[in-house]
Design goal:
Helix content is 31%, strand content 24%. It has an eight-stranded antiparallel β-sheet with strand order 1-2-3-4-8-7-6-5. The protein has one domain. Strand 3 and strand 4 form a beta hairpin. The chain is an alpha+beta fold.
């Protein structure tokens, strides 16, 4: 999908969902001074809060107390969901490279961990690998660039296992095709119920190809611009006084 198509789809997730360009995350390529939209965040809109020095000091003291007591702070408000979508391409032509979605379930509306697993398997098939620590369950579906499923015993199994979550870094490899990762966190008072849920998907080989083609096209455009500037200067510049 294009950047704009993906943004419209994410906003359809919930009437409160808003999309903002993320300028703090990106890929290590030379953009030659061009502005490329490297991705966007989808989050619930929040009421505007007018802050004063007392509010700020109070928040700092509360955060310090939580750290001192080793308190757990939920990164996603209960009952909300969020997205991070990374993109790459020439300006105005950016396309999606990876998608991550998280959801935190409100108490009383928590699905069972097993029902989420079964829903994932119904959508993606049997996972390439699965880890279950009791409190957390992780499932991965991995394919090579030809579309063949990566099975147990293959060295690509670990190479292509992606980090799951909206805050996770994107790691790409030409050895990997479509990969999907899902993480289910059980509720503290009943690990059979899901407290939160996250899914991330990408296509490593395809994404790397897009990164390279984008950088190559940007370099060609930059070289053409420099050549034109030199040509214009040779025709229009005043002769220097020697």
């Amino acid at each position: 999908m294009s950047w704009d198509e993906a943004a419209k789809l994410v906003m359809c997730d919930n009437p409160l969902m808003v999309v903002t360009e993320n300028t703090s995350r990106g890929y290590n390529i030379n953009t030659f001074g061009q502005h490329i939209r490297l991705g966007f965040d989808g989050k619930f809109s929040e009421s505007r809060v007018v802050r004063n020095p007392q509010h700020t000091v109070g928040e700092m003291m509360n955060e310090a107390q939580q750290r001192a007591n080793n308190a757990y702070a939920t990164p996603l408000p209960i009952g909300q969901s969020r997205y991070f979508v990374s993109t790459m391409g020439l300006p105005g032509q950016e396309q999606v490279l990876s998608v991550a979605r998280e959801e935190s379930f409100a108490e009383g509306k928590q699905p069972t961990v097993d029902s989420l697993k079964q829903a994932l398997i119904a959508k993606y098939g049997e996972p390439s690998q699965e880890n279950d620590s009791g409190a957390n369950s992780n499932l991965y579906w991995e394919y090579d660039p030809s579309g063949a499923k990566i099975t147990k015993g293959s060295p690509r199994l670990q190479i292509c296992r992606i980090d799951v979550g909206s805050d996770a870094a994107t790691s790409l490899s030409t050895a990997c095709g479509v990969t999907v990762g899902a993480g289910i966190q059980g509720a503290s008072n009943n690990p059979g119920l899901a407290r939160s849920f996250a899914v991330t998907t990408q296509n490593g080989a395809q994404a790397i190809a897009v990164l390279k083609s984008t950088e190559d096209a940007l370099k060609l455009a930059a070289d053409a611009r420099k050549a034109k500037e030199l040509n214009d200067a040779s025709k229009n510049a005043r002769a220097p006084k020697l």
